[in-house]
Amino acid sequence: MQTIEQILSSYDAAAPLAQASTIPASWYVDERIAELELRNVFSKTWQLVAHTDQLRKPGEFVATRLAGEPIVVVRGNDGALRAFYNVCRHHAAAVVTQPCGQAAILQCPYHGWKYGLDGSLKGMPEFEGVENFDRAENGLVPIRVETWECFVFVNLDPQAAPLQQFLGGLVKRVTPLGIGRLHYFDRRTYDIHCNWKVFVDNYLDGGYHVPHLHKGLSSVLDYKAYTIENEGRYCLQSSPMVSSDEDAATGATRKGDRAWYFWQYPNLMINCYEGYMDTNYVIPVDADHCTVIFDFYFSDVSEARREYNTQSVNVGNRVQDEDLGICEDVQRGLKSRAYGAGRLSVRREAGEQLFHRLLAADLKRITAPLQAAAD
Ligand code: FES
Ligand SMILES: [Fe+2]
After folding, report:
1. In what order do the strands lie in the sheet containing 121-123?
2. What separation in Å is there between the alpha carbon of 114 and the centre of ligand 1?
3. If I label 146, which of 16, 73, 248, 369 is the partner at 20 to 30 A Cα–Cα?
């Protein structure tokens, strides 16, 4: 069995695209890599956890998990947005047990401890006589939270750079699209039997698979004019659109001059057409599984547009089903003794190389001091 150091050193991040290979198959199947990613990537980067519409009023909350940690985001009575580890300071039960909702106070279901919306400990039944217990020191443990456009992000790393700095150049590219005018409509969640990176790779292949796998989508894209731009931690894939009635549902719901496909390292995608956006957020489960959450937004979410919007979500769902099948196939192939790593198309797959380089830098950079400390 290879050591983790051998696995990490088997990827050459310095190779130019024309000479580069993907990260090796072992990175997609080894649980040690999956654990390293949780610790060094998902616990250190800004992660999407909610959209602002879910957290407008005082007491509105969203509870979820991030890198294995239970977390809760809540709007305070003072209007401030706060995030906490959703772990009771008494005996570690989850304080908030609903995925979302509204509450005046956060009360642990186990022994009834109460926390304010600001995380402060407000009450502990039958706790008289306990010595050396400072209530002020026993509030919910806070987590960094920031918003951008309609998205709420948290970061488990107290030392992390601010969200805008993390997003970098993505902000200036997304702002002109005016996504703030769109409204949340629907969510679809997919459990996929593949490593989370297989899903990201599939997204970042510069349209390479579109004519083969997505005949419907392919009919509205000018495939030859598809562009791929890398900068910092994001990749923008974009294509001029053509009107087509080859696939009626796709033609009716995927419109505009251009299709915009943004990926932000490590696991967020934002896809825009005219009057339309969907976000894809990829959550690793273990080396072999991930969950992908699709949120759909439209410029008009009135009752009169419900049927059209539903048809549009269904078009997205069909594309996703096509991707899902191939991703699970790839995961099986990655375990084959016949496969080690693959080469990259210079015309199409620069985005994948950016992803692999960023990931390798994070995994290698952070393991070095850990090893040094252990020596
Ligand atoms: S664990 Fe929450 S009150 Fe006991
Ligand atoms: Fe696809």
Report:
1. 106-107, 114-115, 121-123
2. 9
3. 369
